[in-house]
Amino acid sequence: MRFDWTTIIGLIAATCTTCSFLPQVVKIWRSKRTNDVSLLMYAILTTGLLLWLVYGLILKDIPLIVANSVSLTLSLCVLVLKIKHG
User: Longest Cα pair distance anywhere in the chain, in angstroms?
Assistant: First the structure.
């Protein structure tokens, strides 16, 4: 598979936005505190990420598939931890 510049830019953008979830997941995992995390926001975000993943799969777009798979996993982690510790 050959990557053009738009794919490379997409992968870099996907890496940045996906990695932005890590500090929140780690913080909640360690502290077991989710008081300041919005359940509704993460429920909506998780739904959106699932839809973006489906969209990426339909288009067979690697940056969309990779970014939204990882982001969905991390968002689900926050959502589950919020429900568990909320």
Answer: 45
Number of other CB atoms surrounding residue 58 within 10 Å: 9
Tell me how many degrees the CA angle 25-71-37 measures, rounded to the nearest 5: 40
Q: Work out the average pLDDT over 49-77.
A: 93
Span 15-62, pLDDT tens digits = 898 898 899 889 998 998 988 889 999 999 999 999 999 999 999 988
| Cβ neighbourhood burial of 40 (10 Å; 0-12, 13-18, 19+) | exposed
Polymer length of the chain: 86
How confident is residue 1, by pLDDT bands cut at 50, 70 and 90? low
Cα torsion angle, 66, 58, 6, 72, sign: negative
Q: Identify the CATH assignment for 5-85 out of 1.20.1730.10, 1.10.150.130, 1.20.1280.290, 3.20.20.70.
A: 1.20.1280.290
